[in-house]
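Structural prep section.
Before we set up the soaks we want a predicted structure of the protein with pyridoxal-5'-phosphate in place, mainly to decide which crystallisation condition to try first. Input record follows.
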Amino acid sequence: MSVAKLRPVGSRVPNLSGVCPEADFPWSHHYHTVYLNSGTAALAMAAHLCRILWKPGSTSPEVILPAYGCPDLVAALVAYDIKPVLVDVSRGVPWMSLVAAERAVTKETVAIVAVGFLGGTERLEALRAVAYRKGVLLIEDSAQVMTPGSCDDPVADFCVLSFGRGKPVNLMGGGALLIRRDHMAASLPIIDELEQSDLNLGLGWRLRRQVFNALLAPALYGILERIPQLGIGETVFTSLPGVHRVNNMEGLLARGYAGVLKRPVFEGQYMETFGFLAYEGWQFPLRSIPRCLLRFPLFAPSEEIRDRAITRLNRRGIGASAFYQRSLSQISGVARFLDAGSEKFPNAVDFASRLLTLPIHENVTQANIDVMFDALSTLSTDQAPMPLPVTGNR
Ligand SMILES: *Cc1c(COP(=O)(O)O)cnc(C)c1O
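Run finished without errors. Recording the tokens verbatim:
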């Protein structure tokens, strides 16, 4: 059996040689960009600013998060002593229940985080309305979405970008906080207090980039995935080591962003190829097909079928994945930051147990898509396990 494996996600790190494109980002009209050490750091700073701008006197500030999401959401808040308050998602989707979000707002709430998922944005208008009615701010976590939904209509007070591995623009780390221009005067004095550094883009960085890009190849990815120490594909809580500014990231982002615009678009082809699954009870959990899907999400009719599909696809060299695998409160290390005995989140648990993602990055070939189609189209004709022969009455 071959160990080659088409990676589940991830784009190449951009090249530093050649002419750097102009840093002309679609969000710049409404937002000021501050480059930070990670997306988590950017979210931490966004929440911190919301608290300082909105409820400076609060001694126990709270921020609302979806109960299905990555543990970095929690790490960001607790870094500034802000309490994460989870809200269940609606059934079969990664989006927060609007009613539950509204109900979760207390007098300590400073913001709601609208978290984009695999390229799709949250319902920003609706969450803006909730935030407005309740007198709290709105943060758009656009770590998985390029570009943020607030670009044209600046509904979010702050937006967050991530440039880590598996994100739309991969710069091997880093993030950005987008500050809506009406918040600049109040925010910049706080940003100015942060430590600053330059990213060293010398030989070391260039070598790291070469190695990184080489490891994305199926032959090497398949081997890496088998090294348990690397923990590839696992979701664990890691605390945020700190927040600092990175001065020279703009040119890199301009290169990465130019790469996003040039990426081949497979989305329509996937919808057509996998559309038949709708007849077998599968669903596409996003509201529309985004411009730049990070992974192609499918919501399976049951956990058992989802798991069977993942096993089958991986055996055939396709890095299909369950993504976060658990709801946020079930991810190890997260519960200690939540209210003891806080309510359960049945829809988030169900979503985590039935989500399947297919690779949809720039190195997917037609042959890969054919294998995925074949593996999924014959799934329901799998032999059910044979019943055990009745023994004892021979
Ligand atoms: C990855 C991610 C983050 C954190 O970004 P890092 O750059 O990895 O710290 C935050 N929010 C979401 C939704 C993410 O997917």
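Observations: The radius of gyration is 22 Å.
Flagged for discussion at group meeting.
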